[in-house]
Write a structure and sequence with these properties.
Nuclear Transport Factor 2, Chain: A, 36% strand
């Protein structure tokens, strides 16, 4: 039953995305999550939008990931929770929500993907403690 509901939601989103490719944006979010799980934070830099990349140094962002995942423990499992089509600054963006199960506590990761110059890139990552 849950699969039917999720499939229906994806079909609804595809119909409302005005050319935004959910398959490509979904692949970007999944790749980012896997790189984080593997601790390969430096490889994420090539996946960032220009604005996100320029918002802080690569070293500062990698230090944040290291600090967060040291505190929450080793990542045990990651599950896509939901996605929602949002519109910010006249640009279509999709937010993918992942439940990240870790050794010490679980967290939720929100990965915002946008199209920039024909490429699907990360325009934001927010990781917070699961409520």
């Amino acid at each position: 039953m849950r699969t039917i509901i999720i499939t229906g939601m994806i079909c609804l989103l595809i119909g409302c995305t005005n050319g935004f490719d959910l398959k490509k944006s979904g692949k970007v979010s999944r790749t980012a999550v896997e790189l984080i799980k593997q601790g390969k934070y430096s490889e994420l830099d090539k996946m960032y939008s220009d604005d996100f990349k320029n918002s802080e140094s690569k070293e500062a962002r990698e230090a944040k990931f290291t600090k967060i995942f040291h505190a929450v423990g080793e990542i045990k499992n990651i599950e896509l929770q939901d996605s929602a089509n949002i519109k910010l600054n006249a640009n279509d963006e999709v937010v993918y929500k992942y439940k990240i199960m870790c050794a010490k506590i679980n967290v939720v990761g929100y990965f915002t993907i946008k199209e920039e110059n024909g490429n699907y890139l990360i325009s934001g990552i927010n990781i917070e403690q699961e409520k």
